[in-house]
Structures are given as C-alpha cells and as structure tokens.
Amino acid sequence: MKPLAYIGIDLGGTSIKMGLVDQLGNILYTLGSPTPVKAGYQHVLALFSQMAEQLLRKSDNEWENIIGVGVGVPAFLDLQKGIVVEAVNLGWYHVPLKEDLERLWTVPVIVENDANAAALGEMWNGAGKGASHLICLTLGTGIGGGVIINGDIYHGANGSAGEVGHIKVKHHGGRSCNCGRKGCLEAEASATAIVLDALEQAKGMSTGLLKEEYERSGTITAKSVVQLARQGDLVCKQIIINVGSVLGNALAQMCYLLNPEIILIGGGLSQAGKILFDPLIQAFNNEVLPRVAENTSIVPAKLGNQAGLTGAAWLIHRKYTLHLL
Amino acid sequence: MKPLAYIGIDLGGTSIKMGLVDQLGNILYTLGSPTPVKAGYQHVLALFSQMAEQLLRKSDNEWENIIGVGVGVPAFLDLQKGIVVEAVNLGWYHVPLKEDLERLWTVPVIVENDANAAALGEMWNGAGKGASHLICLTLGTGIGGGVIINGDIYHGANGSAGEVGHIKVKHHGGRSCNCGRKGCLEAEASATAIVLDALEQAKGMSTGLLKEEYERSGTITAKSVVQLARQGDLVCKQIIINVGSVLGNALAQMCYLLNPEIILIGGGLSQAGKILFDPLIQAFNNEVLPRVAENTSIVPAKLGNQAGLTGAAWLIHRKYTLHLL
Q1: Overall pTM surpassing 0.80 (yes/no)
Q2: Are the beta carbons of A171 and B168 separated by less than 8 Å?
Q3: What is the chain B residue with the closest CA to A263?
Q4: Same-domain pairing of A294 and A146
Q5: B94 and B235: one domain?
Q6: Same domain flag for A103 and A143
Q7: B46 and B9 co-located in one domain
Q8: Are residues A51 and A65 in the same domain?
C-alpha cells in the first residue's frame, strides 16, 4: 500500500493548482487549470472533483490513501464552519465549501485564506522551515500579509490579522489607496506603486531608458522597471531603492510588536532579488533596535506559486499529527 | 482545610507587592514593602521569605495550601530556566531567581517580565477578562507593551515582542528617545513627552495657567498638565489631544498586524481618563479600516498596581489547571 498523503488546493481568481503532498510537505504530483469563474460555484466543484480523480490516477492512488484535503481561497471565511463568506474575485458569497467538498470526497476538508495558506506552506517546507514565529509579506499588485505565531496562522479577533497592506507609511502627501485612504504601505511599496512611480518619472523625461521603454511598449510594468534598474538605469534604481526603504521601515515597526524569527518576502515583486532586498534590509537595520532584531532574519520566499497548495495540505497535516481529525 | 491558592509577587525597582490570590484571580490578602535595592539580591530573597510567612500567617494559611508562586520582575529573563539575565533597576545580572525561590519554598515558582505579568493580570481578572487576543499599553515615564495571543503572553523570537515604545511615529523632527533614535512612540506620547511639551510651551508664554503652575512649583508634571487641561486650559488640552492622537494612530497600525479583541491602556497616564481617551479613540477610528477594527475595543486597564501580582499568580494558575506543574 502507498504511504498516506494529503491533497492541497490553491484556488485563485485566475487559476487552480492542486497537488498531492506527502507527510514531509513535498509535492508529489500537481495539476493546474484556469479557474472557470464565470461558470460559477457548482462548476468549480465539479472541476475540483475531476482534477482530484485525475491526480489520484496519475499518482496511482486511491481515496483511501488520502488523509484529507486543504483548500486556500482568496476570501473572507467563517473558519469554524468552512464557509466562504465573501470571495469577490470568485463572485462567491456565503457558500458552504467545506461541507460540499466533504460530501463529495468523504475525507476531512479544511479551508483557509489563500495568503495564510501560502505563509504556512513556506513555514512547513519553504524559506520559513523550522521557525515558529513568522511574518510573511506578499508583494504584488497589492501587499498581503500573514502572521504565524507558535507554528500556526494567527487570525486575530475577526480574521483581519496580517492586513499589513494598509499600515500607514506616509503621513503627508501619500498616494491614494484602494481602501480610500492615503499613504498605505501597498499604495507606496507594491508593484502597482512602482509602475505609478515610473509612469510619473517617464512623463517628465525627454530621454533615458525608462522613457524609451514607455514609448516602445506604450506601458510600463514593475518587471520592466526592475530589469532597467538591473541594467543600471539610475531612475529605475532609485524607484526600487525607495520602495525597498519603505518596506524595510515598515517591517522594523512590525518587528517591535511581533519580534518574529523570520520575515518572509514573497510575491512577484520579490523576484527583483538583491536590487530590492539590499535597500530593504538596510532600512530595516537602520530603523530597528539591534536587540529587538538580533534573532530576526529577512529572507525571500522559496516555494513560489506552490506555497499555497503546500500550506493548504499542512492544515490537514497539522490536525492529523495532533490526532484532531 | 482552606481552598488552594497562589502567591503572586510584583517586584519593582521601588516597591514589592505580594498577594495571596484565589483560583478565580481575586486577591485575598496583600502585603507591600519598599524594595531594598541597595542591599542586594540575597537581601531581597530574605525579605520575600519574611513577607510570604507573614502573608500565610495573616491569611491563616500553610504552605500546603499554596500551589505555587509567580513573580513579575522588571528584567530580561531566561524564561526556560527562570534566570534574571538583566534587571538594570535592581542591579541583578544572571541570578537564578526561580531556582533559589524553589529551594526556599519547595513549591513551583515561575518568573515573568513585569509588564507581561500586568497584561496577564488584566486578562485574567481585569479589563481584559474573557478576551484571548490583547495588546496592553502601559503609559508612564516610558511606554511599555505586552502582547497576549491565544490567552497567553507572546514573547517572540527573543522576548522583545511588545516593545512598542520604540515604534516610530514621527519621521521628521521627532524628539530624541532614550534608545538613541528620534520620533519613537515613547518620546512622543509618554508622560515624559507631556512634561517636555508643557515645558516648551510654558517657556514661551507670558501668562496663563500653565505658566503660573510652572512659576509656582518650579516644575511641571504630567499630572498637573492633565489637571489644568481638565480645568479648561487650552494649551494643556491641546498637549493631551496631541498625545492622544499619536497614541490612537500608533494603535491603528498595530491593529492591522494583530487585530486584537481588546487594547488595554494602563499606567499612570491612563488615569487622565476621557480627556486622553477621547482624542485617542477618535484618531484610532480615523486611521483604521472599519472592518479591521470592528471587533476591537480600546479600554482603560482596571487593576492598577495590583495587575502585576495578579498576573504573576496566573502563571501558576495556568500551569496548574493544565496539569503542567
């Protein structure tokens, strides 16, 4: 008989990733599919079912080998009941996801917010391995966060813990944020902020690499700003340095409150690497008292887009190993 | 036979408070004494011993009725071993407090940082009763903090969690802080900050209540600023409003990360009451997204200088009820 394993699902607004995960957090097989958002909830359930069967066939497994299924969802959740309260990107409101999937598969199902699942994945088998207290930042269009305390995700009073994108980092003249405020971390230091910074700069320029890129492609992406910075363009370099400094400063403030062992930086923008991490770590070290940060390291996330399904599987793993299933 | 109880000790740089605490967190008897700091460690141990005997006599108890002793110490601690690593105000460095007291009393002893003990006391039987996730702020000469998560104190990677006094709240032109930086929360919003604000104001004034107070007494205290503000002095009112706003803003940022159920405000300055809490709560509500704070309340601490010994007793209570002693 095959060793027992978990299924982890990372349900995004764009794609679904499903994987078979062993008891050490290694992914044995994965499957992917675009998310049929428009087709609706029942259709997604049917697709989950097909994908799971395919995953089992592909890996030569049966449902008897599966201890349970974890699902990361971009949503506010009722964690106790496993209900998706609001998933704007999926158009789901008050759907009993856990109950429906347990009826379908007759194994235990646990649902969790997708950013939290990604943080747990990194803790289990990624850049946070071995740590118990972590802050995880996801730098993308916005800035998401997850707080892990004593080896488990911390939800707070109503599930809003780790909403670090809206920490105010600029008190005067800050950029407008989606939340209706100004100067929020994600308005000042996300990939979106980099694009807006670059557009402002490009418009005021008569020559230069950034200007050329803008005129050639008609737009600017965070990726292209990072690339130009790497090629030595000073304007783009400065934009990335500014963003890194803002992030480093903000992380220092978080460190006073939470004194984490590891701060993980993931998401698309973290791919910028050294050019972003150097000013970020410099600003962090300038801002934080040495004693408070002496046991804290800042590291890039490692699992990329497999963090979510790994962490979703961990949810089952945890309960299984604690005999709570 | 009497019901079993705990002894809680709050060891400060100025005074020692010792109390007999029942299993509901109520204080049955207390004793106090000045701390004989200059006489040294062994002398304090001897005094502890005398006080404990007196407490038992007074309450008609024997050591058999005592489940254990908790001690709050103003120090960095090695919690595992119960060693006081550094207690500047006591002049203690690397003393095995837990071991020495257990040899003395032959009951289990637990030591904890004093600010954390106070936070736990408020959670057990004060303004935080019933909550599991709390941030506790102590407003005094400096600003201390304690973070309670899942009903227990959270220490972080090296015991620095909750060092919120050094969160930066003023990025330009901030006042110098004891830590060597500028614009820290405790440099801008402690009782000390109020005194410095008031002194600056008084020096520039030709008349007014504040000026009169300064000339009459030769100094200004935070208490007198609060009193004058209550009497309607606009300058003093504005000083308190500013400090309240800074605190409210800072708490909003903490709320994004920790989403606590309750934020407790204690320490001498919290006695200012409404005149401080009104602008504090207003600034908090202006700064925080409603969803993030909808389950968070900001309340004054309730136990005053009995919080510490109550929380110290709770440390024993917790282990006893979990059968961990």
Answers
A1: yes
A2: no
A3: B157
A4: yes
A5: no
A6: no
A7: yes
A8: yes
Going from the first residue of chain A to its last (325 residues), give the mean pLDDT of each consecutive group of 10, the final group possibly shorter: 92 94 97 95 97 96 96 92 92 97 97 94 97 95 93 94 94 90 95 96 90 92 96 96 98 97 95 97 95 94 96 98 93
Nearest to A295 among B157, B259, B287 (CB): B157
Residues in chain A: 325
Domain range holding B315?
5-123+305-321
What CATH number is associated with residue A65? 3.30.420.40
A258 contacts on B by Cβ (under 8 Å)? 147, 154, 156, 161, 257-258
Contacts of B232-239 with C-beta under 8 Å, sequence gap 24+, read B233/B208, B233/B209, B235/B198, B235/B201, B235/B205, B235/B208, B235/B209, B235/B210, B236/B198, B236/B209, B236/B210, B237/B275, B239/B194, B239/B197, B239/B198, B239/B201
Do both A139 and A115 map to the same domain?
no
ipTM for this prediction: 0.91
Identify residue B122 by its one-letter amino acid code.
E
CA distance A55 to A314: 18
In the DSSP assignment, the letter for residue B242 is H
Closest CB to A161: pick one of B156, B253, B258. Answer: B258
Contact A259 B296 (CB under 8 A): no
Residue to test with chain B: of A152, A155, A258, A263, most B Cβ within 10 A: A258
Q: Do residue B110 and residue B238 come from a single domain?
A: no
Q: In what order do the strands lie in the sheet with A92-95?
A: A76-78, A83-87, A92-95
- The domain tally of chain A equals 2
Buried b / exposed e along B241-276 (16+ C-beta atoms within 10 A) = bbbbbbbbbbbbbbbbbbbbbbbbbbbbbbebeebb
